[in-house]
């Protein structure tokens, strides 16, 4: 459901804003400046957790400088590019406050809209900021729609259509996936493990101010495939229904051949007819085998216990206890 709530609604005892960073060296100073103004107006404890997803530009250098300047910035640098959702998972586990907000690093999610999204948490556990207008190209929008369609299998259909990277949720929800391990991560699916109280509010959406998005159509499609085969059984159900339907189709063809034989005294002529039937059945079998193979591949990767992310270093962390769970025994490393 969509909500329009006043900013005066209580928002809890602290806010952690988690931001995955990739190719944003020129945008980050402006983002932090706007975030500071908004978070200070809330008169609550706050922090910003920046997770550098092995950006090839100078993003980490900029992050480290910002962390030195602002004591409310905590930064994490990943060993390689794990993907947006993996970086988000890392930042969410590092967050310390009761309310967690996730936004993109490109200023398409205006920081000024954070109070509106957070306010709705007085009634719900997870709230999405749905853009009032979409600023992407047609192909990107189609890929996003495919992802939202896949999410309808694990959450309310109305909310699934309004899912975005602009989220606010209670930190208790993250306890549901505290021990999750694996290379395939979907934050939106993981949130459904902890609650079914979802909502959405309409927020302003701005065009990207600098550079191009690192989330290409190919990555969106790959994320959708990982979502449907890694967190749902929808493809297996489709394969089962297809197999049942083609079995009925084959039975109908058999009845047609037998009836023709008994009524007309001859069989159905023509090689194209037989070849078409064989092609349909063979294609269905290969499709089902491919679906099963996708699931087996994911079981294989999870059996190898591949990590969701690996941390290289930290910046802006003054105490070992502030690090993400599982990383507190590592020696503290400061950025150059």
Structure, explained:
This protein is an alpha/beta fold and 336 residues long. It folds into two domains: 9-214 and 306-322, Spore Coat Polysaccharide Biosynthesis Protein SpsA, Chain A (Alpha-Beta Complex), CATH 3.90.550; 234-303. The protein contains ten helices and nine strands. Helix 5 (138-151) runs parallel beside helix 8 (217-231) and helix 9 packs antiparallel against helix 10 (271-303).
Task: Using the alpha-carbon principal axes, give the shape.
Answer: elongated
Could you say which structural class the secondary elements and strand pairing correspond to? alpha/beta
CATH architecture of the largest domain: Alpha-Beta Complex
Number of domains: 2
Task: Tell me the radius of gyration.
Answer: 25 Å
The CATH H-level superfamily of the largest domain is Spore Coat Polysaccharide Biosynthesis Protein SpsA, Chain A
**Secondary structure: helix percent:** 40-55%
Order of helices and strands: EEHEHEHEHEHHEHEHHHE
Mean pLDDT: 78
Strand percentage: 5-15%
CATH third-level topology of the largest domain: Spore Coat Polysaccharide Biosynthesis Protein SpsA, Chain A
The stretches of 5 or more residues where confidence is low (pLDDT under 50) are 1-12, 328-336
Number of strands: 9
Alpha plus pi helix count: 10
- Text of the CATH class of the largest domain: Alpha Beta
List the helices and strands and how they pair.
Elements: E1 2-3, E2 15-21, H1 28-41, E3 46-52, H2 59-69, E4 73-78, H3 84-94, E5 99-102, H4 114-119, E6 126-131, H5 138-151, H6 157-160, E7 167-170, H7 187-192, E8 198-203, H8 217-231, H9 234-264, H10 271-303, E9 311-315
Parallel strand pairs: 1-8, 2-3, 2-5, 3-4, 6-8
Antiparallel strand pairs: 4-9, 5-7, 6-7
């Amino acid at each position: 459901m969509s909500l329009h709530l006043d900013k005066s609604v209580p928002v809890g005892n602290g806010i952690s804003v988690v931001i995955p960073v990739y190719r944003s060296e020129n945008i980050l100073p402006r983002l932090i400046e706007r975030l500071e103004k908004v978070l200070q107006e809330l008169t609550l404890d706050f922090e910003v957790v920046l997770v550098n997803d092995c950006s090839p530009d100078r993003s980490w250098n900029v992050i480290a400088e910002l962390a030195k300047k602002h004591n409310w910035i905590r930064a994490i640098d990943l060993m390689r590019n794990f993907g947006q959702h993996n970086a988000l998972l890392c930042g969410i586990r590092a967050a310390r406050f009761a309310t967690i907000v996730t936004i993109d690093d490109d200023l398409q999610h205006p920081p000024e809209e954070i109070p509106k999204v957070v306010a709705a948490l007085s009634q719900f556990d997870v709230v999405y900021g749905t853009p009032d207008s979409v600023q992407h190209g047609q192909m990107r929008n189609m890929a996003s729609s495919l992802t939202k369609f896949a999410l309808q299998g694990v959450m309310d259909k109305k909310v699934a259509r309004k899912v975005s990277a602009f989220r606010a949720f209670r930190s208790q929800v993250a306890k549901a996936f505290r021990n999750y391990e694996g290379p395939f991560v979907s934050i939106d699916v993981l949130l459904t493990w902890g609650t079914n109280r979802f909502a959405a509010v309409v927020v302003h959406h701005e065009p990207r101010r600098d550079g191009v998005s690192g989330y290409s159509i190919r990555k969106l499609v790959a994320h959708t495939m990982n979502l449907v085969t890694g967190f749902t059984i929808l493809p297996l159900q489709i394969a089962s229904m297809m197999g049942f339907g083609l079995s009925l189709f084959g039975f109908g063809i058999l009845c047609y051949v037998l009836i023709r034989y008994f009524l007309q005294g001859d069989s159905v002529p023509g090689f194209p007819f037989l070849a078409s039937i064989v092609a349909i059945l063979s294609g269905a079998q290969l499709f089902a085998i491919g679906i099963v193979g996708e699931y087996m591949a994911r079981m294989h990767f999870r059996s190898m216990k591949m990590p969701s992310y690996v941390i290289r270093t930290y910046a802006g962390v003054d105490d070992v206890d502030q690090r993400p769970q599982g990383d507190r025994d590592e020696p503290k490393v400061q950025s150059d």
